[in-house]
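Field log, afternoon session.

UNIT: design team B
ACTIVITY: writing a sequence onto a fixed backbone
BACKBONE:
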C-alpha cells in the first residue's frame, strides 16, 4: 500500500499557513504531516536564521506557533 506523507519546514514565513496545509492534506487523503524544524546549513546569516526559526523556544513569536499547533491539533512540538 502506498502512503503519501507531507513534510514542511516550519518557519516564521509559513507557520500561519499550517491550518490551510492540514485542510489541503485532508482533502487529498494525506493523513501524516511531518512538521520539521529549521536547520542552518549556512544558507542564512546567524541573525537571519534566528529571525526565521520560529520553532525555537527562544524566538519571540514561539507562543504564536504553539497557538497554531494547538489549533490544528498537533501536540508533539515540545
Amino acid at each position: 500500500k502506498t502512503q503519501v506523507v507531507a513534510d514542511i519546514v516550519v518557519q516564521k514565513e509559513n507557520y500561519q499557513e499550517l491550518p490551510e496545509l492540514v485542510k489541503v492534506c485532508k482533502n487529498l487523503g494525506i493523513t501524516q504531516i511531518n512538521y520539521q524544524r529549521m536547520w542552518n546549513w549556512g544558507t542564512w546569516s546567524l541573525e537571519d536564521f534566528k529571525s526565521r526559526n520560529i520553532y525555537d523556544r527562544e524566538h519571540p513569536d514561539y507562543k504564536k506557533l504553539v497557538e497554531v499547533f494547538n489549533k490544528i491539533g498537533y501536540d508533539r512540538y515540545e
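LOG NOTE: The chain has a mean pLDDT of 96.
NEXT ACTIVITY: expression trials, pending approval
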